[in-house]
Amino acid sequence: MLTEVGYARLIMAEVAARAGVGKAAIYRRHATKQGMIFDVLLPDQFLAVPPDRGSLHADLSAVLAEIADSMASPPQGTVPGLLADIHAYPALRDRFAEKYLEAQRQTLTEILDRAAARGELTTRPDPVALNALLVGPVLAWLFLLPESPEQLPVLNSVFLDATLALTGTRSPGAPDDSPR
Amino acid sequence: MLTEVGYARLIMAEVAARAGVGKAAIYRRHATKQGMIFDVLLPDQFLAVPPDRGSLHADLSAVLAEIADSMASPPQGTVPGLLADIHAYPALRDRFAEKYLEAQRQTLTEILDRAAARGELTTRPDPVALNALLVGPVLAWLFLLPESPEQLPVLNSVFLDATLALTGTRSPGAPDDSPR
Question: Is the complex ipTM more than 0.90?
């Protein structure tokens, strides 16, 4: 129904009718339309299990792929609609902070801890700034600019190089002028 | 009124009442509430005059400061609300493409042209990818994560370093190991 009518025009009564249940049955599980859509798109914590692939580059690459997938998959208009409603409804903002932001911050902190233990970091970036650099260009590419989702995998390597520059780490493919 | 009632709850009839005019007077100039808010926030083309400060770093720094200011200034909830409505209303999307995206793309192209003429670029990035790297982290910082606007000026230098890494250009303050 999100694909058919769009985020802004989705109505709980029609969701109930399509599901063959009463509205009360839906409202027992989801207090609002926004909360329902959010829970359907994000049933569990986002990135709750940090990828562990042996290098900062591989770990951040996996994080970036998951971020891009989570933003490019929902039907058109859904992510911008939810983002607007997160700012309009405090209850949705709290739920978003808990299921998305907190888990993502912990995941990035753990990835940075492991990279530091391997001696990969010359500078330890703030996890929130790192998160902004990972999630921001994808968000802008898909919803502000808005460009083709098909190009995201290619672009992600560009965005990743920019992010890695922040940590003093070079991509495996980048020219390396420092002694090993 | 945006500050008082918020983007989602702003009603044209109340804007007219506050202005002491009839609704028709407002609708003659602005077809929709969304279009009216957009035109008030962005009366002219965004970044229509490219900064020309003698280096890629200085030019992109000026662009980033203007992007951050344009996103941090509107009342809380306005930018996410407009972004959602750009995806819901094709007329608003066209207006946004014309006044914001096109001007910004031309500005970045001109800045890259000048940097190339000065021999500052080892790689010429795609202007849209560059734009995503400039505007994305600010967007994420303010509206997705969402962190304090007061920290943006400090962060912008971090974001700028990451962006400059994409162009093969180093920040003036960064260690330089290449012969001049």
Answer: no
